[in-house]
Design a protein that fits this description.
single chain, about 190 residues, elongated
């Protein structure tokens, strides 16, 4: 296996969520149902009382249902349909993590978007001349939104903040500094 294919595989595994939890839950439910059916069948074969319901009685009730059985069957069917829909959604959903891949000559580098947002907030704080608590940022993909709350009496130059954030994120990767939105609050805080 070449190093490029290994790096692609590492990046993919780092970027996408595992579906093993959904598969494990489905398998546990399936094993429990199969164990219950097997236990009831063995109890019926040896002439002991059933744990919940005799399999033959359940089949007979399904073939000649009464009102109570229909209600129970409808509730069980609704639960199974909801469970099935959840499993299908989990299987088909892309399952992306909030991470971005940064190209590097020595291998695969994966950066969490919270790191990118914190870097943007730090750069905005320094450029605006406000405490770090007065800035916040969120990042998704290649777009970053920065919010700055100015200190009373000190104007914030929105274009200078945008340029500082773009420059700092551009050092991580050119893609991160492309779409930066800066929002300056109209109301300031006391220093």
């Amino acid at each position: 296996m070449s190093s490029n294919s290994i790096e692609r595989r590492i990046r993919r595994r780092s970027m996408h969520r595992s579906r093993s939890t959904a598969v494990s839950v489905a398998l546990v439910v399936l094993v429990l149902v199969a164990a219950w059916i097997g236990t009831e069948s063995v109890l019926k074969a040896v002439g002991a009382r059933p744990l919940l319901a005799d399999p033959q009685t359940a089949v007979d009730a399904a073939l000649r249902p009464d009102a109570a059985f229909l209600t129970i069957a409808e509730v069980i069917a609704v639960v199974l349909v909801v469970f099935g829909v959840v499993l299908v959604v989990l299987a088909l959903k892309p399952g992306r993590q909030h991470r971005s891949v940064v190209p590097h000559d020595r291998g695969a580098v994966v950066v969490d978007t919270r790191i990118i947002a914190a870097t943007a907030a730090n750069a905005a704080s320094a450029a605006a001349g406000v405490p770090e608590d007065n800035t916040s940022a969120s990042s998704r993909g290649t777009s970053t939104e920065v919010r700055v709350v100015p200190v009373s009496g000190i104007a914030v130059d929105e274009s200078a903040v945008r340029a500082a954030v773009e420059e700092r994120l551009g050092r991580l990767d050119d893609r991160f500094g492309r779409r930066v939105t800066v929002r300056v609050a109209e109301q300031g805080t006391l220093s």
